[in-house]
């Protein structure tokens, strides 16, 4: 069985395009994953800040009534 060089070269752009597409999509997926991690960290930070603000409000309201 002989492999024709012309036939092999004709598939090279297709293989190259598939490789480029794979690389682009994997890079975009990595970027999306990083953004999701950042958003989840922001949500945790917001929850901590909210808890502290609620504690401060309670503290100020209780101390304000005593005076």
Shape: rod-shaped
**Number of H- or I-type helical stretches:** 1
Class from secondary-structure proportions: mainly alpha
Determine the N-to-C terminus distance.
98 Å
- Biggest sheet character: none
What's the assembly state of these chains? Answer: single chain
- Average pLDDT, all residues: 90
Estimate the strand proportion: under 5%
Which H/E pattern describes the elements? H
Structure description:
- This protein is mostly helical and 67 residues long.
- Helices cover 93% and strands 0% of the residues.
- The chain has 1 helix and no strands.
- It has one helix at residues 5-66.
- The longest helix is centred in the middle third of the chain and has 62 residues, at 5-66.
Characteristics:
67 residues; 1 helix; mainly alpha; 0% strand; single chain
């Amino acid at each position: 069985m002989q492999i024709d060089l012309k036939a092999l070269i004709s598939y090279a752009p297709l293989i190259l395009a598939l490789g480029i597409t794979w690389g682009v999509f994997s890079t975009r997926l990595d970027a999306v994953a990083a953004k999701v991690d950042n958003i989840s960290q922001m949500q945790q930070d917001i929850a901590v800040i909210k808890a502290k603000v609620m504690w401060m409000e309670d503290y100020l309201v209780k101390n304000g009534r005593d005076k």
